[in-house]
Each structure stands twice: as structure tokens, then as C-alpha cells.
């Protein structure tokens, strides 16, 4: 029984190692610029073993995105508050914290955003994510009293996307703290 548990843990760890190696390479080299061989090498395994855990490079990317989606659902639940001002403030603050703490995630997401028209599966995921966030922002902005919450939600999501892209370009010199303060002042009372 203990051997079976250790073997299962080993497989889970190996799968995670492949996923995080792929994430790092996709974020730094882009999806197109990364091969399965490079992912395997970074994970310290053979290329063939990669296919034991994942069907293809596309499957690897989908699993990374699913991992982030699950993580995001948990995070959103932890940020929730009945007061829409508090919830909105937490969402905005969390966005900036993720940029600071998980720049590789932001790099991957922004690089995928720029390739959205090239891959149908990426486009579908991007639209789904956008609509989810847009609807949430619109609902919160409506509750806090913005007269045209739909327009403001579009502006806010566009600003946040722009921040992520600019952070990728400028890096550590990007004024994250000042930008966060500006957005909070504009949208949270």
C-alpha cells in the first residue's frame, strides 16, 4: 500500500515538473518557439515519457490553463465579499499581486493573448475568460453605482490587459504600484 502511494506521488510530481517546465518555456520562448523535446529536457525526462503524461504540446498547454483556472476559482472564492466595493478592491489588488508574485503566469497569458487568432482553442479560452471577468466587473461596477457599468467594465478590463502587456515589455521598471493606486482610486470608493 505504501509503495503504491509513493509511486502515485512520484507520478504526480513528475507530471507537475513537466507542466511547470512547459509553463516556463512557453512564457519565455512562446508556445510556437517551444518543442516537446525542450520541455522534456527542462523537466529532466525523455521526450517519449512526456507523451505518457500528455497527449501533445497542445494538451500540455490546455492542462496548464486548466490548472490556472482551478487555482483562479479557489482564489476568486477567497476574495469574495458581500460588499461590492470590498470585492472589487480585492480583485484589483489580487491582479497586481499576481503580476508581482507570478510573472511567468502573466507572461504566458499575455503571449497567448497575442496569438489568439492563430489557435482556435486559445481563442475559445480567451473569450471565455474575458466574458467571465467582464460580466463580474460589470456586475460589481453596477452595484457600486457606475452609471454606465458596461462601458466602465470594458475600460477596466482593457486597462488591466494593458497593464499585463506593458509589464511584460517593460518588466520591473513598470510602475505597478502607481498604476494600481490609480485604478483603485478610479473604481473603488
UniProtKB/TrEMBL annotation:
Domain of life, source organism: Bacteria
Keywords: DNA-binding, Transcription, Transcription regulation
InterPro entries to which the protein is assigned, alphabetical: Homeodomain-like_sf (IPR009057), HTH-type_Tx_Regulator (IPR050624), HTH_TetR (IPR001647), Tet_transcr_reg_TetR-rel_C_sf (IPR036271)
DNA-binding region(s), residue ranges: 35-54
Keyword field contains Transcription regulation: yes
Protein name listed in UniProt: HTH tetR-type domain-containing protein
Chain ranges of the HTH tetR-type domain: 12-72
Cross-referenced Pfam families: TetR_N
Molecular functions (GO terms): DNA binding
Amino acid at each position: 500500500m505504501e509503495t503504491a502511494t509513493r509511486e502515485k506521488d512520484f507520478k504526480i510530481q513528475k507530471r507537475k515538473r513537466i507542466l511547470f517546465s512547459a509553463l516556463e518555456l512557453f512564457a519565455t520562448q512562446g508556445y510556437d518557439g517551444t518543442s516537446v523535446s525542450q520541455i522534456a529536457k527542462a523537466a529532466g525526462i525523455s521526450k517519449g515519457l512526456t507523451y505518457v503524461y500528455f497527449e501533445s504540446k497542445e494538451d500540455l498547454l490546455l492542462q496548464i490553463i486548466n490548472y490556472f483556472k482551478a487555482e483562479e476559482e479557489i482564489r476568486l472564492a477567497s476574495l469574495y465579499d458581500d460588499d461590492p466595493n470590498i470585492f472589487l478592491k480585492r480583485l484589483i489588488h489580487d491582479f497586481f499581486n499576481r503580476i508581482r508574485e507570478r510573472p511567468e503566469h502573466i507572461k504566458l497569458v499575455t503571449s497567448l493573448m497575442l496569438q489568439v487568432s492563430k489557435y482556435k482553442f486559445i481563442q475559445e479560452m480567451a473569450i471565455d475568460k474575458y466574458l467571465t471577468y467582464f460580466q463580474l466587473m460589470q456586475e460589481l461596477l453596477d452595484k457600486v453605482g457606475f452609471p454606465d457599468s458596461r462601458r466602465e467594465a470594458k475600460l477596466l478590463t482593457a486597462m488591466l490587459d494593458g497593464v499585463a502587456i506593458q509589464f511584460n515589455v517593460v518588466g520591473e521598471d513598470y510602475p505597478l504600484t502607481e498604476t494600481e493606486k490609480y485604478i483603485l482610486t478610479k473604481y473603488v470608493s
